[in-house]
């Protein structure tokens, strides 16, 4: 028969209460730190984050006059302090884009798509000449300015996002890479890519436009009912490459 010592039982009870009290204090401290980090944006630890909405407008000259299309995406970038991370990822920045690409109906049954692009496009377009060199101080200064900026710039051709043309039945998953040099070859005489402009804007993120043209993608299958992967023709050695939904939509904006 086991007999508990009243003195030992009392001691263990006091220890348990002390342990529970310490655990509660640690939990409250953790909650306090979490709230403080959330409210401060972690800046006091050296983390910096920025976000803005950017609008891409694509304009095409046609025999019947100019046509255009646009979309607004949200982009964000976070730069941690140099002590954050391990190995090659130490101090590495991260970024995201939310929204969808651009479609322009160039003529009946012929479409131009500008695929998703990231925050670097805005940095290249709007960075002041003195801050083009990406030192830490320059990058912080430019991202601070981009968040406040409301302006429009025309992109240089080397900064264009990937452009794809669909000139056959669009639901065949048949695309071709296109640019200023081969635009009239792909779309026909009298068609020319006039400009691609980027704006930092207060407009809302665009949703639900591309699905009107690419809704077939969800059920794109071969004759045996297997899932097919759309392709686009290009000048690579094999002459084509694969396409995924993330070329057109951010992950949370894929419509199916």
Write a structural description.
There is one protein chain. The chain is of the alpha+beta class and 256 residues long. It contains five helices and eleven strands, in the order αβββββααβββαβαββ. Helices cover 25% and strands 29% of the residues. A six-stranded mixed beta sheet has the order 4-5-7-8-10-11, with no helix packed on it. Strands 3-2-1-9-6 form a five-stranded antiparallel beta sheet. The radius of gyration is 27 Å and the shape is globular.
SSE topology string: HEEEEEHHEEEHEHEE
How big is the Rg? 27 Å
Query: Which strand order does the major sheet show?
Result: 4-5-7-8-10-11
Calculate the mean pLDDT score and round it.
Answer: 85
List keywords for this structure.
single chain, 256 residues, six-stranded mixed β-sheet, 25% helix, 29% strand
What's this model, at a glance?
This protein has 256 residues and is an alpha+beta fold. Helices cover 25% and strands 29% of the residues.
Strand-helix topology:
Layout: H1 6-40, E1 48-62, E2 65-79, E3 94-98, E4 102-107, E5 110-114, H2 119-126, H3 136-148, E6 152-154, E7 163-166, E8 174-177, H4 183-187, E9 192-201, H5 211-214, E10 231-233, E11 240-242
Parallel strand pairs: 8-10
Antiparallel strand pairs: 1-2, 1-9, 2-3, 4-5, 5-7, 6-9, 7-8, 10-11
């Amino acid at each position: 028969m086991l007999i508990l010592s009243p003195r030992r039982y009392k001691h263990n009870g006091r220890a348990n209460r002390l342990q529970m009290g310490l655990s509660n204090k640690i939990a409250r401290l953790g909650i306090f730190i979490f709230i403080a980090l959330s409210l401060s944006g972690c800046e006091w630890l050296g983390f910096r984050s920025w976000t803005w909405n950017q609008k891409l407008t694509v304009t095409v000259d046609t025999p019947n006059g100019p046509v255009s299309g646009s979309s607004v995406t949200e982009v964000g970038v976070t730069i941690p302090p140099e002590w954050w991370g391990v190995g090659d990822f130490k101090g590495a920045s991260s970024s995201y884009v939310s929204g969808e690409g651009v479609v322009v109906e160039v003529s009946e049954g012929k479409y131009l798509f500008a695929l998703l692009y990231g925050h670097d496009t805005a940095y290249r377009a709007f960075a002041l000449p003195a801050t083009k060199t990406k030192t830490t101080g320059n990058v912080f200064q430019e991202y601070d300015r981009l968040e406040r900026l409301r302006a429009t710039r025309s992109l240089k051709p080397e900064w264009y996002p990937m452009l794809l043309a669909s000139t056959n039945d669009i639901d065949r998953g048949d695309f071709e890479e296109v640019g200023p040099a081969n635009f009239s070859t792909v779309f026909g005489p009298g068609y020319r890519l006039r400009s691609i402009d980027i704006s930092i804007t207060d407009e809302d993120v665009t949703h639900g436009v591309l699905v009107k043209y690419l809704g077939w993608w969800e059920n794109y299958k071969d004759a045996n009912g297997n899932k097919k992967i759309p392709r686009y023709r290009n000048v690579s050695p094999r002459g084509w490459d694969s396409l995924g939904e993330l070329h057109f939509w951010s992950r949370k904006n894929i419509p199916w």
